[in-house]
Design brief:
elongated, mainly alpha, 3 helices
C-alpha cells in the first residue's frame, strides 16, 4: 500500500502570473531602495539643492520606464558608464552570482 503524501492545506498554489508579479514587485523595491540611497547621499552628505534632487529623481524614473519598455537595457547603461565615463559598480563578485 502506497503512503499518502501530506499536503499543507494552507498552501496556495502559485501561478506564473503570481511569480511574475512578485518578481516585478521585488525589482521595483530594489530600484526604490537604490534611488533613496542615492538621494540621501546627495542631500545629506553633499548638500545638493532640492531642485537638483527632484530633477535627478525624475530622470531616474524616466530611465526606469525606458528600461521597463525595453528602449534601453541594463547592459547599455553599464557599457556607457564604463566606456564613456570609466565608472563601474561591483557589489558582488561575478563568480558569486547564481
Amino acid at each position: 500500500m502506497a503512503q499518502k503524501v501530506k499536503l499543507n492545506p494552507r498552501k496556495i498554489p502559485k501561478t506564473q502570473e503570481d511569480v511574475d508579479r512578485a518578481s516585478k514587485d521585488g525589482e521595483m523595491r530594489g530600484l526604490e531602495f537604490a534611488l533613496n540611497l542615492v538621494l540621501y547621499v546627495l542631500k545629506d552628505k553633499h548638500d545638493a539643492p532640492d531642485d537638483d534632487i527632484l530633477q535627478l529623481r525624475d530622470e531616474f524614473m524616466y530611465v526606469v520606464d525606458s528600461v521597463a519598455h525595453k528602449y534601453l537595457s541594463y547592459q547599455d547603461i553599464v557599457r556607457t558608464l564604463s566606456g564613456e565615463y570609466d565608472l563601474a559598480v561591483h557589489l558582488i563578485n561575478r563568480e558569486d552570482r547564481h
